[in-house]
Specification:
Blueprint lengths: L1 H24 L1 H27 L5 H32 L1 H21 L11 H8 L1 H36 L3 H8 L3 H42 L5 H11 L5 H17 L3 H27 L7 H15 L1 H18 L6 H7 L9 H9 L4
Helix pairs in contact: 2-3, 2-6, 2-8, 5-6, 8-9, 8-11, 8-13, 9-10, 10-11, 12-13, 13-14
Amino acid sequence: MKTDSTMRASLLFISFFLAIYSLYVMRDLITPFALAIFIWLIIDGFARWIDNLSSKVPYWLALTMALLIVALGLVGVVLIVADTGIAIANDREIYTSRLTEIFAGLNDFLLRFDFIKDNVDLSAKGLDQRFGLVDAVERGMLGFASAVTGVLQNFIVIAIYVAFLFAAQSSFPKKMDDLFSDLNQRGQAGKVAMRIRHSIEKYLGVQTLLSLIQTILSYIVMVSLGLDNALFWAMVIFILNYIPIVGGILAVVMPILFAVLQFESGAQIGMLAGGLFLVQFIINNTIQPKMMGDSMNMSALVVVLALVLWTALWGGVGAFLSAPLTVIIMIILAQFPTTRWISVLLSADGHPDMDEMDKMSAEAKPSM
């Protein structure tokens, strides 16, 4: 018995590291398909929500409307990014001058407290001579252009994947019947699939609504204080809020850093920082707990560890999908006696494979 337990633990340990290694090595192939699956779930969930609004709206029309809304959103993102890039390029001299002033003030501060002994030329020319600033900027622009090209290429691949997922959607029930001939196994597999889909759809739906609320309120704050490219920063806030914990912090810090570059008044910077942090505080401590509930059923520690692991494996895509991917793994591991203990440790309440209705039914039963 002890030998069997040791053997199972060893195989589980080896399988875990092989899976991690495979996910890392094949990340360029897997990440576009993973994004396509989640985009498909978002569009399909949005279409079914539109379809449920009225019995007169057929699903194909609701799906067409959902696809058009998502496509318009992507076009809007591209236009906002392009407009922001042009605006920053036109005002680069202003930002360079302001950056030189900031470095000069920093140099005076360091000299005053004897952190450095010699005065340093912190003009744009001096910075270029000392640090190769122009070359660094050129390398950064080339890297940015390469990254944009890669993203556009991935979008094409992702769009193809999404199209084929919708084309194959009608055959999924039949394939489920063919895979599981036993009625009990088929029912359990269908329940697990619905549990995964419900958890992901609820998480993405609630997260989208929360991000939209924070984006609108933050945009009002930024526009009222005169921050340049406020629409772009609002888009950044909306996207970053999908990344657990770290994304919300970056969504506030990045516009503030840009405000330091734009504003000369410390009062304006302070008011912007206070307004953005206030919006985030209100949402994270009042609206989010009530709306999110226990849909993910993961403890805060597991969320952090999942974020670190998936970011190390898949970069930004991993950070974006860390919470839903961990929930999928948790629910699947709960179906096997050998790995159920891992799923229990990952869950927040010790019931990784029970949805809200199951938990309510269990609580309603009298204890023996």
